[in-house]
TrEMBL record:
Name of the protein described by the UniProt record: TPC2 protein
Gene this chain is encoded by: Tpcn2_1
Protein's UniProt keywords contain Transmembrane helix: yes
Keywords: Membrane, Signal, Transmembrane, Transmembrane helix
Subcellular location: Membrane
């Protein structure tokens, strides 16, 4: 039963590869039949669990409620999407975001649920680091607007360079990952090589310091919550 549950969960999650927009597109009828089959298996597994569990215990378990709601949402979305396709109305499968619920909430996924719970408990404690990072990003973006916005600079494509504040925030956010380095700084560097100091300071503060701090906080808090959880299980 555990192997079968994992197989159909994997099959259900894999449908995203074959549904529009897809990497390897398959006809809608094929993917819909497979999805209905997976949902029937999930419903059968839930019914089997309800038969061997006391009614009050079953209905008080949030995991069972989440699975039932996910099945209903998936079937509703599948039916609406199918009807809209008949009338050639373009739409999206919004129920895809609920598919990981099956992976987390079945009784067989105890280890995954434990890791998810640790991550959930860690999130509130990293909020302050994230807010500090966003404050730094916004301040550097404001500095970039003041430094480069009035220089009448242009990118290699001929577009205005650092004229719009929101676009600056996005470009510098991408620079944190170094994905657009050094292209994003070249118009300013061509104007004056001293402007490279601004981008060097930005990378040092946000990429090296804040990202390292962010990773350290996430790791330490996750380890703390996992240790408490494992200790509680050992006491039980």
């Amino acid at each position: 039963m555990r192997a079968a549950t994992y197989f159909f969960i994997f099959l259900n999650l894999s449908l995203a590869v074959f549904e529009e927009p897809a990497v390897y597109p398959l006809p809608f009828l094929v993917t819909s039949v497979v999805e209905v089959l997976c949902l029937l298996v999930f419903f059968g597994r839930l019914t089997h669990f309800a038969k061997v569990t006391h009614r009050n215990v079953f209905w008080k378990d949030t995991k069972n409620i989440c699975i039932m709601v996910a099945i209903l949402l998936s079937l509703t979305d599948l039916a609406i999407y199918g009807v809209l396709r008949i009338y050639n109305v373009r739409s999206i499968r919004w129920s895809r975001i609920v598919r990981p619920i099956f992976l987390i909430n079945f009784a067989e996924s105890r280890q995954i649920r434990r890791a998810f719970r640790s991550i959930r408990n860690t999130l509130p404690e990293i909020t302050y680091v994230f807010l500090l990072f966003m404050f730094s990003l916004l301040m550097f973006s404001l500095m970039a607007l003041k430094l480069f916005g009035e220089r009448n600079l242009h990118t290699a494509e001929g577009l205005p360079y650092f004229k719009n504040y929101l676009e600056i925030v996005f470009d510098l956010y991408v620079l944190v990952t170094t994905a657009n380095s050094p292209d994003v700084m070249m118009p300013a560097f061509d104007f004056s090589s001293w402007y490279a100091l601004f981008f060097i300071a930005f990378v040092i503060v946000n990429t090296y310091i804040f990202m390292s701090l962010f990773l350290a906080v996430v790791y330490n808090n996750y380890k703390k919550h996992l240790k408490v959880m494992v200790g509680g299980l050992n006491c039980d």
